[in-house]
Amino acid sequence: MRHLIIGNGPAGVVAAETLRQQRPADSIVLLGDEPEPPYSRMAIPYLLEGDIAESGTYLRKTAGHFETQRITLKQGRAVSLDTAARQVTLQSGEKLDYDRLLLTVGSKPSSPPVPGIDLPGVMTCWTMEDARKIAAAVKPGSRVIQMGAGFIGCIIMEAIVSRGAKLTLVEMADRMVPRMMPPMAAAMMRSWCEAKGVRVMTDTRIASITQTATGLRATTAAGETIDAEVVISATGVRPNIAWLAGSGIATSAGILVDHTLATNIPDVFAAGDCVESEELGTGLRIVNAVQPDAVDQARIAAMNMAGRPARLTGTLQLNVLDTFGMVSVSFGQWQGVPGGELVEVSDEREHRYMRLEFDGDVLVGATSIGHTEHAGVMRALIQGQLHLGAWKDRLLKNPLQLMDAYIARQQSVG
Questions:
Q1: How far apart are the first and last CA of the chain?
Q2: What are the φ/ψ torsions at residue 354 (nearest 5 degrees)?
Q3: Residue (of 277, 230, 16, 281) closest to 125 by Cα position
Q4: Which strands, in side-by-side order, build the sheet including 2-6?
Q5: Domains of the chain (ranges plus CATH)?
Q6: What pairing do the DSSP bridges indicate for beta strands 285-286 and 275-278?
Q7: pLDDT per residue over 190-237, tens digit each?
Q8: pLDDT-based confidence at 248, cuts 50/70/90?
Q9: Which of 58, 37, 36 is nearest to 47 (CA)?
């Protein structure tokens, strides 16, 4: 049996290793389109901060790991897929045959329609090559504009500041991390970042970027100009699926998969940031671009490719962010549900915040800053969909009793 995995990030690597465990004699080819060994994009900020070398981003650090596993690493960019012929064509013209195919092709940065976005000095922070360009350009005292203050933008932000740059953060939405945090939590994060020397501009759109004698000039929609040597575009990512046009694979915002991570085409599976799967609790299809979920999906997809039935119970939105030492998390339907109840508490002096969202007596979403001791319990309650009974009303009065509620309900269920 020939297994071809396209995409050698965390999902692709875990899938390949799972397949090898289950199918010792099968052929496994892991395709990546960058020259580096499989690495984690989430480690790039640590590289820029100087905490690790490039080798520190590698997903497997033991020399010869993939050779020992008899997993063939191959470099090339897939440009088309013929599912009838079971064949993938690479940019080089080479064709790869498969019996079973797994798409772990991830996401790619979205480029905002801003005049000047292609100028020298305007960069993304997504690949190892991007990281090298940023490291060469951003020095102590450099003026940097970053477009985007979402989850990825906030990870990049700390790395830029650690290099001694003067950073202006520009976000179109009314708050930072708008897809992760409600307004009160986002306001706390903003004040924290501003105290670290970051200029934060929300409700602001960059309308154009032009070249000047000393660097770049960004002009906002309101007419304000901001000069910089470097502009970093971190306005979001989208599933890397455009190349699948004409393949017959069903897509919407991402590749559509069932509970086994199978697509609509026999023997073609997909996992990770490129897929749309059902959200736990709602049944709605969402693209959930977080690494823990991608790895779980990859393992389940690989088990099914190996003929070992496994099912995904539902994808859970899960975000963990460390911003200049402020640890924030959000889980599940953190924004709440129609007809639901919520409780919100905040201690601005201690930079601590918690918000719980309920649907009936089930915790369906949570956001916290600083309360790291509760993060595991939040996830367990939401993922387990435990009925809290009378504990729901107690938590509405004091959400910090979350650990007590979890222990009590676990003992009750047990």
A1: 43
A2: -150, 140
A3: 230
A4: 72-75, 27-32, 2-6, 100-103, 268-270
A5: 2-108+238-305 (3.50.50.60), 122-235 (3.50.50.60), 325-413 (3.30.390.30)
A6: antiparallel
A7: 999 999 999 999 999 999 999 999 999 999 999 999 999 999 999 989
A8: very high
A9: 58
Residue 414 predicted with pLDDT over 70: no
> Residue 257 corresponds to which tokens in the numbers above?
């998969």
- The rounded distance, in Å, linking the Cα atoms of 305 and 299 is 10
Query: Which tokens belong to 25?
Result: 């004699």
- Closest-CA residue to 210 (of 231, 187, 185, 184): 231
Element (H, E) at 296: helix 291-305
Residue 172 CA, distance from chain mean position: 20
Phi and psi at residue 326, in whole multiples of 5°?
A: -90, 115
Q: Which residues contact 79 (CB under 8 A, 6 or more apart)?
A: 89, 90, 91, 243
Summarize pLDDT for 286-297 with one digit per residue, the tens: 898 888 899 999
- Beta strand 72-75 with 27-32 is parallel
SS3 138: coil
Whether the Cβ atoms of residue 84 and residue 76 lie closer than 8 Å to each other: no
Residue with tokens 């089930």: 362
